[in-house]
């Protein structure tokens, strides 16, 4: 996969990540004098019209949502060699996956962060989009010009509209976070699949652990004394195996996390230090391991918030990173059938 020197007016500076379907680069907008992230479709897929369309569909979805709580897309274009690309927010403060590092967050920070994440997912739900792969590596942070930071939900690579649910051909999501119905070809996940993912994220930020199997799962408060009973109840309802018993959507779950019984004095998302370093030997997040829907083969390892086949830790679309060493409602349908970019 060749790296261009420019993508339109954007000067390519550094490779952030590369996978079987696309590469993500740190670039600079010389006209606006600001860093951006550029995702470019891989050479070997550029002539597949179905892959091109799904690649660009992710950009269109993010542009349509147009929320500061989601990774934002600023531009779209085509290289001289015909490969499409899109330009998005550069997340300079890493991912939630980096920050957890095997430990829970402070209580107020965890609850405030989850309210922000829920609100971002609620924006998707309001336009009829189900994310289908909510996990720590798909939650990014970027600096605010005035100081502090904001959280962004990333990776709509397997997002779907309810118009297309009947056409699902592969399970979606990541182990530990995906809803039970996402494990089956005919699961037709709806908004409540994202509620399950949000519940799993809440559980993780509060306890430092991914929820266990339903039959052995205990409330967060059993692992972390001091978790309000109302939060325990809200999280366990979000994690119900029977989707009929869950909160109906992200907005409802956000309301539950913001109830007077659990709201504290800390702002929704307090500024914090830079991402914690990844500890040696830490296992990567699980991935669905499937190829893109409707496409043969495909790498089984998936980049968090980026592309199938990319490294599974500490890297997501728009995220700062070190280039690899060596050679280099209605749901909207995303570009690929596995966690892939956003």
TrEMBL record:
Q: Specify whether ATP-binding is a keyword of the entry.
A: yes
Keyword Nucleus among record annotations: no
UniProt feature, compositional bias: Polar residues: 257-266
Q: What's a Gene Ontology MF term here? A: ATP binding
Give start-end positions of Gly residues composition bias.
287-297
Compositionally biased region (Low complexity): 298-315
Kindly list the positions annotated as binding ATP.
Answer: 39
Q: Which parts of this chain are annotated as the region Disordered?
A: 257-342
Q: Where is the Protein kinase domain?
A: 10-262
The protein's UniProt keywords, in alphabetical order, are:
ATP-binding, Kinase, Nucleotide-binding, Serine/threonine-protein kinase, Transferase
InterPro entries in UniProt: Kinase-like_dom_sf, Prot_kinase_dom, Protein_kinase_ATP_BS, Ser/Thr_kinase_AS
**Membrane-spanning segments:** none
Q: What is its EC number?
A: 2.7.11.1
The EC category is transferase
According to UniProt, the name of this protein is: non-specific serine/threonine protein kinase
Task: State the organism of origin.
Answer: Nonomuraea cypriaca
């Amino acid at each position: 996969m060749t790296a261009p020197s420019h993508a339109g007016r954007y000067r390519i500076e550094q490779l952030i990540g590369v996978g079987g379907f696309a590469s993500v680069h740190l670039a600079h907008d010389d006209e606006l004098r600001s860093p951006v992230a550029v995702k470019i479709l891989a050479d070997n897929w550029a002539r597949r019209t179905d892959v091109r369309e799904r690649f660009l569909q992710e950009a269109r979805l993010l542009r349509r949502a147009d929320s500061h709580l989601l990774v934002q897309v600023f531009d779209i274009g085509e290289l001289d060699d015909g490969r499409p690309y899109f330009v998005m927010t550069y997340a300079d403060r890493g991912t939630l996956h980096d920050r957890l590092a095997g430990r829970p967050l402070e209580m107020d920070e965890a609850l405030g962060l989850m309210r922000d994440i829920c609100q971002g997912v609620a924006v998707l739900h309001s336009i009829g989009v189900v994310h289908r792969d909510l996990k720590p590596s798909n939650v990014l942070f970027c600096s605010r010009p005035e100081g502090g930071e904001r959280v962004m939900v990333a990776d709509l690579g397997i997002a779907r509209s309810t118009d297309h649910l009947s056409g699902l051909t592969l399970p979606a999501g990541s182990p530990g976070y995906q809803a039970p119905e996402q494990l089956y070809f005919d699961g037709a996940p709806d908004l409540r699949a994202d509620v399950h993912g949000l519940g799993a994220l809440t559980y993780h930020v509060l306890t430092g652990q991914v929820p266990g199997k339903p039959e052995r799962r205990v409330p967060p408060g059993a692992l972390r004394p001091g978790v309000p009973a109302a939060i325990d109840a809200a999280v366990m309802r979000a994690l119900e195996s029977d989707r009929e018993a869950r909160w109906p959507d992200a907005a409802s779950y956000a309301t539950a996390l913001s109830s007077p019984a659990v709201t504290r004095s800390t702002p929704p998302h307090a500024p914090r230090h830079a991402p914690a370093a990844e500890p040696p030997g830490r296992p990567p997040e699980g991935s669905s391991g499937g190829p893109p829907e409707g496409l043969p083969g495909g790498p089984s390892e998936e980049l968090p918030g980026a592309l199938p086949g990319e490294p599974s830790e500490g890297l997501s679309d728009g995220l700062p990173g070190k280039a690899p060493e060596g050679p280099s409602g209605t749901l909207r349908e995303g570009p690929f059938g596995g966690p892939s970019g956003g």
